[in-house]
Amino acid sequence: MASIQCRCGTVVIRLARALPKCAWECCCVDCYQKNMWSCEAGGVEYPPGYGVHGIGLPMHLVYFDNKLDVQKGRERIAFNRLRDDARSTNMIASCCKALLCVEHPGYVGQSVLLFPDFITILGAPPLLPPACRIFIKDWPADAYAKLPPKPGIWWEDGKMYGHSEEDKALAGKSVEGMLQAMPPSAIGETFQQLLEAVGGKVDVLGLPEGPNSRRKKQAQAGKEPGGVEKAFNYKGQGQGL
Ligand SMILES: [Zn+2]
Ligand SMILES: [Zn+2]
After folding, report:
1. Ligand nearest to the CA of 96
2. What is the pLDDT of residue 192?
3. Which of 21, 93, 122, 165 could form a disulfide with 98 if both were Cys (CB 3.0 to 4.6 A apart)?
4. Ligand nearest to the CA of 97
5. In angstroms, what CA-CA distances link 204 with 34, 166, 207?
């Protein structure tokens, strides 16, 4: 079984399995922004290869069961979100501002998201590179063309798009992994239970959505109204992981 620990070692959480249920490479502005916030708030350098959205690497994402067995540092577990209408909630360690994991209603309560390049995952074998990319339209097109080729998808007007049917089928398999039900034997508390334990308190960072966001770019081009994110589920609709 794998564990995660915050940068200073105060918070240690055991995960319910050794290997992720699914992995992606994500091009979205929010994955970048929350990790950059965490590095800056914690006073640490960005990991090698990361830095500015659209110039550094896309984010490596892995999903584990939503069962978190807190071994120590429980009193340091806190929560935030990027802005008022962000649908993702971030679990952070208040000691060193490490981003521990993320919850989104689209995971239907079965998974949490971790960023393995930003959080130490102990006891997991070396992770394979993700098979496909998501939210590829958030990445500037010229910079995207220079990335190593990989199947990629995005969501637009509530529908999943890809450059080919094969890309969409491959992405669909990863979505299934993410939605896969947790085994009844999994030990620990859910993200939601840990949030409840602090009285549901979520700090709002109040950061504006990054300018590379597909939705923002399209809104600026006058094709669709900007503003509130659409309703979201992985069966078809989307905006924001
Ligand atoms: Zn810490
Ligand atoms: Zn993302």
Report:
1. 1
2. 98
3. 93
4. 1
5. 12, 39, 8
The H or E element containing residue 79 is strand 77-81
Ligand closest to CA 33: 2
pTM, rounded to two decimals: 0.90
pLDDT per residue as tens digits for the range 190-239: 999 999 999 999 999 999 999 999 988 888 887 655 444 443 444 433 44
What residues does the ion ligand 2 have nearby, CB within 5 Å? Answer: 26, 28, 31, 241
Ligand nearest to the CA of 136: 2
Conformational region of residue 172, where left means phi above 0, alpha means psi within -120 to 50, and beta covers everything else: alpha
The one-letter code for the residue type at 92 is I
The alpha carbon of 6 and the centre of ligand 1 are apart by a number of angstroms equal to: 4
Annotation: CATH topology of 3-220: 2.170.150
Residue 148's φ and ψ, nearest 5 degrees, are -55, 140
Pair type for strands 59-65 and 153-156? unpaired
Burial of 159 (0-12, 13-18, 19+ CB in 10 A): exposed
Phi, psi of 140 (to 5 degrees): -55, 135
**What is the tens place of the pLDDT at every residue in 48-82?**
999 899 999 999 999 999 999 999 999 999 999 99
Alpha carbon separation from 132 to 44, 60, 164, 211 (Å, rounded): 29, 10, 12, 23
* Per-residue CA distances from 176 to 14, 158, 240 (Å): 23, 18, 17
Q: Residue 100 C-alpha to ligand 1 middle, in angstroms?
A: 10
Residue with tokens 């597909």: 214
